[in-house]
Amino acid sequence: EVQFAESGGAVVQTGGSLRLSCAASELTFKDWVIGWFRQAPGKEREGVARIRWSAGSSVYAESVKGRFTISRDNAKNTVYLQMNSLKPEDTAVYYCAGGDYFRAKWDYWGQGTQVTVSS
Questions:
Q1: 77, 24 in Cβ contact below 8 A?
Q2: What pLDDT shows up at residue 46?
Q3: Which member of 2, 8, 29, 112 has the lowest number of beta carbons within 10 Å of its beta carbon?
Q4: Which long-range contacts does 102-106 make (Cβ < 8 Å, 24+ apart)?
């Protein structure tokens, strides 16, 4: 079974930056889409950004456009989320997930990494 592992969460001040990593055990045999999601206490999980592994095309939530960048390293089977100009409202547990691009379904999830932005 494919596994995803997030890392890079931390406590950072408002306006600061962090880079999250999502390492996948394998990304073969399908056209993968890898996404970053977040869930703050008392709130529903929301999609932050996603990237199509084969093409590198990406989509962002309006709330993070211009501040966050999703990218991939094919050789390392790793997806990154560069987060700049962080705000307290970005505080959440961040998860990465993967699935088949054409099925549009998230089949595999990581355990999450905590990001806390202090004001």
A1: yes
A2: 97
A3: 29
A4: 102/31, 104/33, 106/35
pLDDT tens digits along 64-105: 999 999 999 999 999 999 999 999 999 999 999 999 998 878
Strand 18-24 relative to strand 46-52, pairing: unpaired
Looking at this protein, which amino acid is placed at residue 96?
Answer: C
CB 33 within 8 A of CB 27: no
Indicate whether 13 pLDDT > 90: yes
Can you tell me whether residue 74 is helix, strand or coil?
A: helix
Tokens of 79: 């997806």
> 58: which 2 tokens?
């990406």
- Please give the single-letter amino acid code of residue 76: K
Give the type of residue at 67.
Answer: R
Contact 9, 114 (CB under 8 A): yes
CB atoms within 10 A of CB 43: 10
Distance CA 104, CA 91 (A): 27
CB-based contact 61:83 (threshold 8 Å): no
| Cα of 31 vs its chain's centroid, Å | 18
